[in-house]
UniProtKB/TrEMBL annotation, chain B:
Residues 10-43 form the FAD dependent oxidoreductase domain. This is Choline dehydrogenase. Belongs to the GMC oxidoreductase family. Its cofactor is FAD. Pfam families: DAO, GMC_oxred_C, GMC_oxred_N. Residues 414-531 form the Glucose-methanol-choline oxidoreductase C-terminal domain. Keywords: FAD, Flavoprotein, Oxidoreductase. Residues 240-325 form the Glucose-methanol-choline oxidoreductase N-terminal domain. The keyword rRNA-binding does not apply. It comes from Acetobacter cerevisiae.
Length: 211, 545
């Protein structure tokens, strides 16, 4: 039998989904990105803080791809946030563009739409975008998934630094990152009022991923 | 090509999970030589933690644990499956997952360490259903305690909270304080229902124990405790190795040899990943390779002497497959914020449905209010509803703090038609067939699940719940059992009350595969107690003749 597999010890990382994902990201990095921020954020899992992050710090990817700059502007509007982490943004953008051939043009289209009106909120902009082109709903979902879940193209771009954890950090820790010490969980977490806002986009079927 | 060198030990164990490693540890400490053959690789925790953090589908418990090609395990619970091929009316309900690697499937258990109830061992006598075990609760009680000490189990004071399984000793550690969410759930159950919420006994440290730290509530017991505050089989591997037991990873046993009378096992043969064959001989043999792989190995070892498989004169190897089939619902509570997911994953249980006279017609069950971090689920749900920006953030906070998940363990019955066989079409790279399982839910279990759904609906109403998401049909709880069933009659069972095979006097089985019924509590503590009882038997026979 052909000796394809080492006997002992086995380096499990060589066959892990993580290793395969990293290999793919690195290939993507060489092909598409070639910038330092991506490597730092993704390869080494640096969890840079979201709040107050300066977008101008890392080397911008915009020199290579002007749509990447547009992506950041669109993202700020769709998150109602004045600043977002550029390194994370570049990685999310790379994943979204990788996921579908239409995405880059759709991001540009969103950017054009943004320039055509005076949108004061994410909701107003998203509703207008879906009205202008129903297909833009999917790319808006991708952008929300990227920033809030830290996932693009079905892969983790950031975990601990995903915005979903930033906005819940007064109550709960990302799994595997608890720092409250033993039995912190017995105390009362903050109350949360029932939201009053409305969805901006038409609803989509919520599919729980099979395990 | 057979290896020139034959290894030998007093006891040869197949499988390094909680059963195999705990037997190895006991025997090695008594000065008995032990070789443990593990099909999968030697692994370590930090790789799994990293894999988890990089996993998009976080609830996929198998996700961080990729299989090696020579020791495949099911990649997920999806039917059809790449490895465990299920069929029958309830194929999806038997799509179990487990791990083949050093330490076994407890790498991703939740640490729930239930003793079975005395009635679980006497279901036939007490309720006219299923079978009786070939042992009583009292026979296992000392070994339950030994297993609790080995794992480090925390649990409630029986004087304050009696879980129904009589104890001669208190739990090794005090009960884990339950989370705010569980406290509120317990308050609701106390005030509005006739039921109760109890502390779940858990193999989780409430103080430093066995050189492992106190639980810090990372909420990731499944798929991987990041700090080792929860017991898993790897700790018994380390202890056994320190005591002198020899563990051989990547050793895929494919043949159990017997003497000419077919009464004694003389050796086992295993493949390494390059398909070189090696032989290991011994005085005693223990198959501790998980319910599914244990039955598979006995069937794979069929030859002229035993055309239906080793230890299978009864024809019951691979039959009587059971599980705790589950009902599951997720919903949004209309009451105050709970923020589940602060602390360990499973800490509290409604235990009122574990036993009762109604067990003569429907299965028992227990209910978990799962204390699971819901932030990712909430985010996905809010995005799908169409929220963006500030409104999305409000929704994420609200849904994260108000999402509740309930699931149950519903009791199966041993039915010989629910059967594991060797795949005729799918083989691994070593040429060993994959397992096939036919599964039809017993009516007893269906009735139990119907009762659970009614209770869940009542609970949803009490919590003013909305947005119910019911997991379709029935889902597997990964507690497979019954495939080498225990009994007193060699004609309809595979092992006796000491887990010794009826057919081969020096061959034992340590696995949930010997269970005669499956009760309601998670199966691992009972697996460990039975294994320690096997170790006790082996010590007596080897040291005192």
């Amino acid at each position: 039998m052909k000796k394809d597999w080492p006997c002992v010890p086995v380096n499990l990382q060589n066959v892990s989904p993580n290793a395969m994902r990293m290999a793919r990201l690195m290939r993507m990095s060489r092909r598409d990105m070639l910038m330092t921020g991506m490597g730092a954020a993704v390869t080494y899992g640096v969890a840079s803080g979201i709040a107050g992050a300066e977008e101008t710090q890392p080397s911008p990817a915009s020199g290579a791809d002007p749509v990447a700059t547009q992506f950041m502007a669109v993202s700020r509007l769709l998150t109602d946030r004045p600043t977002l982490d550029l390194r994370i943004g570049n990685a999310i953008y790379a994943g979204i563009v990788q996921s579908s051939a239409d995405r880059q043009a759709q991001i540009s289209k969103l950017h054009d739409l943004m320039g055509s009106g005076q949108f004061t909120s994410a909701s107003a902009f998203a509703a207008a975008a879906e009205k202008a082109d129903p297909a833009l709903k999917d790319v808006i979902h991708d952008i929300m998934t990227g920033w809030y879940r830290g996932v693009a193209d079905g892969k983790v771009v950031v975990y601990r630094s995903a915005l979903m954890f930033d906005i819940t950090k007064d109550a709960i820790y990302p799994k595997t990152y608890a720092t409250g010490g033993p039995f912190y969980w017995t105390t009362q977490p903050p109350e949360v009022d029932r939201p009053t806002g409305h969805p901006a986009l038409s609803p989509s079927k919520f599919v729980v991923e099979p395990t | 090509m057979p290896s020139e060198q034959t290894l030998s030990a007093d006891v040869v164990i197949v499988g390094s999970g909680v059963a195999g490693s705990s037997i190895a540890n006991e025997l090695a400490r008594a000065g008995i030589s032990v070789i443990v053959l593990e099909a999968g690789p030697r692994v370590d925790r930090q790789h799994f933690v990293e894999n988890f953090r990089n996993l998009e589908n976080k609830p996929s418990y198998q996700g961080p644990f990729p299989a090696v090609p020579w020791a495949r395990h099911p990649p997920n619970q999806i039917t059809p499956n790449d490895y465990l091929h299920t069929s029958g009316p309830n194929a999806e309900a038997y799509q179990q997952v487990y791990l083949r690697m050093m330490g076994g499937t407890t790498w991703h258990w939740a640490g729930c360490a239930w003793r079975y109830l005395p009635s679980d061992f006497e279901l036939k006598t007490r309720y006219g259903q299923g079978r009786d075990w070939a042992l009583k609760y009292e026979d296992l009680e000392p070994f339950y305690y030994q297993a609790e000490v080995m794992m480090g189990v925390c649990g409630p004071d029986p004087a304050k909270e009696d879980l129904g399984s009589p104890r001669k000793q208190p739990y090794p550690m005090e009960a884990l304080p339950i989370s705010y969410a569980a406290q509120q759930f317990r308050k609701l159950i106390d005030e509005k229902t006739p039921w109760r919420v109890v502390h779940e006994p858990q193999a989780r440290n409430t103080r430093p124990y066995d050189s492992r730290p106190t639980c810090e509530g990372h909420n990731n017991c499944m798929p991987i405790c990041p700090i080792g505050a929860m017991y898993n089989g790897s700790y018994s591997v380390y202890h056994a190795e320190a005591a002198g037991a020899k563990f051989i990873p990547n050793a895929v046993v494919y043949k159990i040899e017997r003497d000419s009378a077919n009464k004694r096992v003389t050796g086992v043969q295993y493949y390494d990943p390059d398909k070189n064959s090696h032989r290991v001989t011994g005085k005693y043999f223990v198959i501790a390779a998980h319910c599914i792989e244990t039955a598979k190995l006995l069937l794979v070892s069929a030859d002229e002497q035993s055309p239906d498989g080793v230890a299978n004169s009864s024809g019951h190897v691979g039959r009587n497959m059971m599980d705790h089939t589950g009902v599951q619902v997720t919903f949004i509570s209309g009451d105050k914020a709970l923020w589940p997911g602060r602390g360990p994953l499973e800490t509290n249980v409604i235990d009122n449905f574990r036993d009762g006279d109604w067990r003569n017609e429907r299965g028992a069950y227990l209910v978990h209010m799962v204390d699971d971090n819901q932030v990712d689920f909430a985010t996905q749900m809010a995005i799908s509803k169409g929220y963006v920006g500030r409104e999305l953030e409000e929704q994420i906070r609200y849904l994260s703090s108000h999402t509740v998940r309930l699931f149950s363990h519903n009791e199966a019955l041993p039915d010989p038609d629910n059967r594991l066989t060797l795949s005729k079409t799918n083989k691994d790279i070593l040429g060993i067939p994959h397992p096939d399982v036919y599964y039809k839910l017993p009516e007893y279990t269906v009735k139990s699940c119907e009762h659970t759904r009614k209770v869940f609906k009542e609970l949803i109403g009490l919590m003013h719940g909305t947005d119910e998401e019911w997991t379709p049909g029935y889902f597997p709880q990964d507690h497979p059992s019954g495939s080498t069933i225990m009994g007193t009659d060699p004609k309809d069972s595979v092992v006796d009350g000491h887990c010794r095979t009826h057919d081969h006097e020096n061959l034992f089985i340590a696995s949930s595969s010997v269970f005669s019924t499956v009760g309601t509590g998670n199966i691992t503590l009972t697996v460990a107690a039975l294994a320690l009882r096997v170790a006790d038997t082996l010590k007596k026979e080897l040291l005192h003749g």
